[in-house]
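seq:
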Amino acid sequence: MKKTFNIPSYIYFIIITLVIIVLFPREGKFRYSFVEGKPWKYGLLTAPFDFPIYKSEPQLKAEQDSVSRNFSPYFQWDKDVYSKQSDKFSADYMHYPQEYWNPEYRRYVDKTLKDIYSIGIVSNNDYDFLKENHYTAFKVIQDDNKAIPYFTGDVFTLKSAYSYILANCPKYLNVNVLRSVDLNAYLHENLKYDEALSEKVKQDDLQQISPSSGMVQAGEKIIDRGEIVRPETYRILSSLKQIQDKQEGTAQRQIGLIVGISILVAGLMACLLLYLSYFRKKIYEKKKDVVFLLFMASLFIFLTEICMTTGLFSIYIIPYAIIPIVIRTFFESRTAQITHLITILICSLMAPFSFEFILLQFFVCMVALYVLKDLTQRSELIKCAIYIVATYILSYVGVLLFQEGGLSKINWNMFIYFGINFLFVMFTYSFIYIIEKVFGYISNVTLVELSDINLPALAQLSERCPGTFQHSLQVSMLGTAAAAKIGANPQLVRTGALYHDLGKMENPGYFTENTIEGKNPHDNLTFEQSARIITQHVPEGVKEAEHFGLPPAIIKFIQTHHGKGKAKYFYNSFKNKYPDTPVDEEAFSYSAGINPDTKETAILMMADSVEAASRSLKDYNEESIRELVNRIVDGQIADGLLKDAPLTFQNITTIKNVFVEKLLSVYHSRISYPELEKK
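struct:
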């Protein structure tokens, strides 16, 4: 025997809760939202610990720029350059033409080189570097590691040094003689830019800049409700936020964050669990319904987690209004409202400006549930979507006026988000269709579509079984009226009634409503054979319904409209004719049927039997009709066919009265029209 595992409903809640906690954004968020120049909308805030007041980014950057502007790069002094070049000149001088290069030239060049190297020569690249970065001065590291300031304009380049030698040539010397040799060969930079040292000193100077400009002591008041967030207060709040954000990365903070998230998410999910287990036990005990509600909640929670983690889109683009709309389509308003509320509260833990977020979504939920009581037409969804976007806009404007006292700070992008939200809500119609296919539900939209008598199944039924089709219409009329009176789903009963006898198309002539008077095919059959043909219309109906692709909710009406009862006509006839013969109960029973377990299927069973029996009455008056209704319904109760149906005695009494009232209106006596007398 195959084992079946019955997973308790609370296990599904635990699994979804764990998944939400695992995927929940870990970086956390500052508990307060604030904008410079706006009122503080929370209570009194005091410093939870000592913390510095950090400088603003512009202020810190200005100080850094000031350090960079006043910084002087560092050069290294190479003392060996002069001696090497001087020795080189002395050696080369011996080969110069002595008739031109007398000792005066040598003394001049030696002295000038000494003066130039004492001032310093930099390379062309280094000189360009100083000019491009607007360094008017730099520092030179001497032998004793002392930094001597130099002005950029005072030092020589290779070019300016050569020009200096020629330009300062004494009058008693011929400058052309100096040009006759390559003096550039004795010029070489002795000041070299030390990039590593300069960068290190610069970074040290930048690090000396204090990132803070004061301290706030633990317990010190920061701001109170209604006070304007001044620039200084804004810096303090930003500093507190920055410090707490840094603390998110610590192991202790991460553990605390995870524990806090777990408590809040688990608590909210427990509220939904307790609501279903105490107030909606039927939903709680049906695993499919629990999975559906958890799917609707977790879908939008995960979308919110993606939104807040990636930052790809605004949270107000997510159409949270779909939650109450879809759930209300298959369940009642209270369950839709509670599920939506729990979902929004969990999402608000991630959302910025949580108060505004919850307020806007609450208004939208109430409007959606009020406007869209029953989704039966596309136009109703369009109207609901328009009301939703209008609610978003009005709520946003109201919150803005409450906080600002005006519309000067309005964020026009919000209206674009609301418009995109409107478009997503319009896809609810398609989303409901997908939910129906996945979870086997049926919406009023689908029921209305299935009630079209031009559909293939009903068209064939009306053509092949005209009597059965008329019977189905009458049953539909009785069942719809009774369902409306006791708070059941009238549209579901109406549609189920139209299809409940679909199986009679297999042998239409064997059913009384389709036979021609005087011709009874059962006359040539035994009671057992006739009962078998009659009871077979239930499994045949299921087969036909599956062939036409009818949803399970409609097929259930076919399976339950006779329950586990018997074909009473042939059963009683057999017992009356053969009182001493043991009867085969199974031969006369609807073995393929199941007893109704909902208000709608129970109403249809009663309406079907009452309508069929009412055609055999000889007198149609209130007394005879009431006696018939009581006998049929009480007999079904006595046979135990309604033991699983959630009907009270008051419900059954109301249903009986509705049947009597409707049958009287159908079979009331009519006046005879007078014939035209011929003169």
